[in-house]
């Protein structure tokens, strides 16, 4: 399935997961058992990455590490402005992003820089709702189909389309997966994805010193929050006024118009601030310190 419209049509009158699974088996020439085993392994890898977070680790630059633990402790002890569940989601997103920055094993979903969004919304939700692993695997198929539609029509690369193509796509995938788990039909799932993607349209890719650390790690938390509110909107019956595939094409258009300095080159945006320049010079061997 190359578009969200095709995805919505495929899910008419049936479980959307089944439609995506059949498409995957047909496209890769795989058996149902092989496909399910592969997706189950990805879920287990996400869970191992979560369990393997080490709050004492710091990235080579020193810019990333430890914040996930700070957020988790704050949410546990004080509840937080948004409550303990949302605090856990934020902590999970930051922890996964920090693990990536510290060279730990993660699952690119759809990219390494956006690896925290999908597990941050799915794993805490699974625990809260008491869902089976089989349920989450089904949601991962739905997320994957959304990511494929975006990649086919636009891009999931920050170098091509800015961070909207990475965190934006991850948020769209997570929104669709959550909407599916919440009982949304295929149309609702696609509109959840569109609402999330619209909310991150124009987000630039501006990594400080060219590293996937600042502001990347914290943007995973932002993508997770937008995914949750987008899923709830779609489950409430709210629809994107702009058709989902037109939102994807709009993201492609914005990415093509975006200046190269804002597409993963580490030149502008936060990367071009005095702090960003100082860090770049320090990491490249200069004498400046932040």
Index terms:
290 residues, mainly alpha, 13 helices, 62% helix, 0% strand, globular
Structural class: mainly alpha
Main beta sheet strand tally, sense and closure: none
Instruction: Give the overall shape, derived from the CA principal axes.
Output: globular
How far the N terminus sits from the C terminus, by CA atoms, comes to 47 Å
Count of distinct structural domains: 1
Oligomer type? single chain
| Number of alpha- plus pi-helical segments | 13
Beta content: under 5%
Low-pLDDT runs:
none
Order of helices and strands: HHHHHHHHHHHHH
- How much helicity do the residues have? 55-70%
Give the gist of this structure.
By secondary structure, the protein is mainly alpha-helical. It has one domain (4-283).
């Amino acid at each position: 399935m190359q578009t969200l419209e095709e995805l919505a049509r495929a899910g008419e009158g049936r479980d959307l997961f089944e439609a995506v699974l059949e498409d995957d088996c047909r496209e890769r020439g795989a058996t149902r058992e092989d496909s399910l085993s592969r997706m189950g392994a990805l879920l287990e890898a996400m869970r191992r990455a979560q369990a393997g977070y080490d709050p004492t680790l710091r990235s080579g630059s020193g810019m990333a590490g430890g914040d996930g633990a700070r957020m988790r402790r704050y949410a546990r002890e004080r509840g937080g402005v948004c409550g303990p569940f949302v605090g856990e989601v934020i902590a999970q997103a930051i922890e996964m992003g920090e693990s990536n920055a510290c060279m730990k094993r993660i699952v690119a979903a759809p990219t390494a820089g956006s690896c925290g969004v999908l597990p941050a919304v799915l794993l805490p939700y699974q625990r809260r709702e008491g869902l089976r692993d089989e349920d989450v695997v089904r949601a991962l198929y739905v997320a994957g189909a959304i990511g494929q539609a975006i990649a086919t029509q636009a891009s999931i690369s920050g170098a091509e389309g800015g961070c909207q193509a990475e965190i934006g796509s991850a948020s769209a995938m997570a929104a669709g997966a959550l909407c599916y788990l919440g009982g949304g039909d295929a149309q609702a799932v696609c509109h959840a994805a569109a609402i999330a993607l619209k909310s991150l349209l124009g987000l630039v890719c501006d990594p400080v010193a060219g590293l996937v650390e600042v502001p990347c790690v914290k943007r995973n938390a932002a993508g997770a929050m937008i995914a949750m509110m987008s899923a709830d909107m779609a489950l409430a019956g709210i629809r994107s006024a702009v058709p989902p595939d037109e939102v994807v094409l709009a993201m492609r258009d914005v990415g093509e118009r975006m200046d190269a300095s804002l597409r993963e080159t580490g030149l502008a945006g936060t990367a071009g601030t005095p702090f960003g320049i100082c860090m770049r010079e320090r990491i490249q061997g200069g004498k400046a310190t932040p």
